[in-house]
Each structure stands twice: as structure tokens, then as C-alpha cells.
């Protein structure tokens, strides 16, 4: 009788494998100060630095009446996602596969999908936290208005973060080694920053260049975030571009991902 009653108690106190994996991945994430800085701190510091330059806070006709700081808020938000999805996550996942960790985990109660889910969840959370910090810094130190169309802004954020993490997962799927994953990530990283408007806000780009950029997920995301900030519902074309890229990248990464 005592043995029968003791069994449920012991099983209830046993930690779930998925929760243990998430806790372990969280500790490993914060043990990499470089990833934490580039994903969660750098975009906010970039915006804060721009806000300290008086000319950057003045409205500009070239930016449609926005100041440079206001134009760079969605850029900084997207930059944190690009850092997470292209710089931080692919080397970790590829390294796990290269060292045989995912293959060994497939023979244990902890499935490899738990590691992938933890990695995607942690980097998504880090990106969204960075977005909140960026909005707060822009509001407090530069007087940048918070998004007026909250629902549209949140929808764009979710689509953008899923899209960039799907791109990172695809790079992880196609890269046999960590070094190759890093090389591919960097080669995609700089065009992604250009599309997001890091080098030049989309409002200042020539028309042909702006049209090309808006057909890419980060350019469409930047425009949608700007529209939601101004109080308008994001253009359905921009949301559609984000959704289409998300679908294509997610399908491709699931199709070609290998455990070993």
C-alpha cells in the first residue's frame, strides 16, 4: 500500500525533460556574454547613441517628417532579431549536430526537438525583450512615440521574429559544420541589415532600391513597424511578404534539417 502511494509522489517530483533542457539552455545562453550583448544590448545602445546627437532628433523632410531616431526604432528592433537568428542561433544548433549531441539525445527520453524548441524559444524571447527595451529607451531618452496601432505592431513583431528564426534554422539545416554555418550567417547578415535599413533608412533609398528591399522580409517588416507606430494598420502587402517568407523558410528548414 505504501509503495503504491509513494509512486505517484515520486513521479510528480521528477522534473520534466523538456523543462530541464530549457533551464540548461537558458544557463548556457547567459554564459555567452557576446550573444547576450549583441542580441539584447547592442540595438538599444545604438539607438541611445543616436539620441545623444541633437541633429538626429530633428524632423527631416527626407524621412517624411520623422527624425533619424524615430526612423531607426524599427531598425533597432529588427536588428536584435537579425542578431539572434543569424549570428547567435545557427552556430549553436550546428555545433550540437556536429558533435553528435542531437544524435545521442535521440536515444534518450530527451528528444532533440526539445533542444531545438528551447533554442528557438530563447532567441525569440531575447529578441522580443530587446524590442521592448528599444521602445522604452526611444520613448524615455528621445521622446519617440510608442506604437499607436498596438495589435498591428505585435503581429508584425511575431511574423518578423518567426521569419528570421526560420532563416537561422535553414542555415543550420544546410550547414554541415559550425564554421560553414558562421560563414553563411555572416554572408546573409550584411544584406539583411541593408534590407532592414541599418545603413540607410528605407525612406531615403532610391525608389527601385526601396521596392527591392520591401520585397524582402526585413524591409517589409521595417515598413510595417513604421506604419503601426504612426497609428495605421500595416499594409497587407508588407504583412503578406513577411508571412510568405516565413512559410517558405519554415518549410525549407523542416524539409532539410538533419539530426546528424
UniProtKB/TrEMBL annotation:
Residues 34-260 form the ABC transmembrane type-2 domain. GO terms for cellular component: ATP-binding cassette (ABC) transporter complex. It comes from the Bacteria. GO terms for molecular function: ABC-type transporter activity. Keywords: Antibiotic resistance, Cell membrane, Membrane, Transmembrane, Transmembrane helix, Transport. It is found in: Cell membrane; Membrane. Its main location: membrane. Belongs to the ABC-2 integral membrane protein family. This is Transport permease protein. It comes from Streptomyces prasinopilosus.
Amino acid at each position: 500500500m505504501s509503495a503504491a502511494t509513494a509512486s505517484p509522489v515520486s513521479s510528480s517530483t521528477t522534473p520534466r525533460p523538456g523543462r530541464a533542457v530549457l533551464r540548461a539552455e537558458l544557463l548556457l545562453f547567459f554564459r555567452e556574454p557576446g550573444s547576450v550583448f549583441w542580441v539584447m544590448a547592442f540595438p538599444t545602445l545604438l539607438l541611445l547613441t543616436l539620441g545623444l546627437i541633437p541633429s538626429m532628433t530633428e524632423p527631416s523632410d527626407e524621412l517624411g517628417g520623422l527624425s533619424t531616431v524615430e526612423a531607426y526604432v524599427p531598425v533597432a528592433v529588427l536588428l536584435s532579431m537579425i542578431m539572434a537568428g543569424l549570428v547567435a542561433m545557427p552556430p549553436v544548433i550546428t555545433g550540437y549536430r556536429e558533435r553528435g549531441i542531437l544524435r545521442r539525445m535521440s536515444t534518450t527520453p530527451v528528444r532533440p526537438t526539445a533542444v531545438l524548441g528551447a533554442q528557438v524559444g530563447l532567441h525569440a524571447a531575447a529578441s522580443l525583450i530587446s524590442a521592448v527595451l528599444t521602445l522604452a529607451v526611444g520613448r524615455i531618452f528621445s521622446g519617440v512615440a510608442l506604437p499607436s496601432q498596438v495589435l498591428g505592431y505585435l503581429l508584425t513583431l511575431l511574423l518578423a521574429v518567426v521569419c528570421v528564426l526560420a532563416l537561422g534554422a535553414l542555415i543550420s539545416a544546410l550547414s554541415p559544420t559550425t564554421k560553414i554555418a558562421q560563414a553563411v550567417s555572416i554572408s546573409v547578415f550584411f544584406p539583411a541589415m541593408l534590407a532592414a535599413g541599418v545603413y540607410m533608412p528605407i525612406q531615403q533609398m532610391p525608389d527601385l532600391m526601396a521596392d527591392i528591399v520591401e520585397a524582402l522580409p526585413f524591409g517589409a517588416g521595417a515598413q510595417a513597424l513604421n506604419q503601426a507606430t504612426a497609428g495605421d494598420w500595416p499594409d497587407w502587402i508588407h504583412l503578406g511578404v513577411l508571412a510568405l517568407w516565413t512559410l517558405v523558410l519554415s518549410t525549407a528548414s523542416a524539409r532539410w534539417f538533419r539530426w546528424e
